[in-house]
Amino acid sequence: MKNLRKCIGEKLFGNAVYHAASQMELFLTPADKIIDLGAGTCLFTKFLKDKGYNVKPVDIKDRSYYRNIKVYIYDGGHLPFKDNEFDVCILKSVLHHMPNPEVVLAEAVRVSRKLIIYENVVTNIFQRHYTYLIDCIMNKELIEPHTNKTDKEWRLLFKKFRLDLVNVIDEKAWLFLQNKMYFLKRL
Predict the structure, then answer these.
(1) Could you tell me which residue, 5 or 107, shows the higher pLDDT?
(2) What is the value of pTM for the model shown?
(3) Do the beta carbons of residue 111 and residue 85 sit within 8 Å?
(4) Are the C-beta atoms of 48 and 29 separated by less than 8 Å?
(5) What percent of the chain has pLDDT above 90?
(6) Which domains does the chain have, with CATH numbers?
């Protein structure tokens, strides 16, 4: 069953993972120690590891498609790592699934110097509902927080955590979804 999930996941999302991870590479160096926080199925972790990056996948549950990738399990609150242990923290479509994204962001900022945050942004009520629907279907979860924000709200949150916005990449997906990849570093 796990191999079937992996095959389907790679076929459905392989191109999207390749595209997004290639954009992330613009912000990475081969020497970086990276935490993939909210690693999920580990598609991004595997792509980056295959390219030679030092990546540690972390999540609240082991949903990895890959037996050879060990997911570090944590409680969703405090990360079991030292301050500044990582050069980069990747949060790919993670924060909007948290009832309190500030808790996860605070820990990400504590353990890393730079962050790559990829999030759906909402611009109107239709898009908010559409984003919620697509997200529920893709994650097979009907009841979860969905704390999606507007671009302005994300930027205010980053400012609150004293993060400098280095770059933003805008993307559209699934007809009406608006995604942004934020490249940030601590001040």
Answers:
(1) 107
(2) 0.86
(3) yes
(4) no
(5) 52
(6) 2-186 (3.40.50.150)
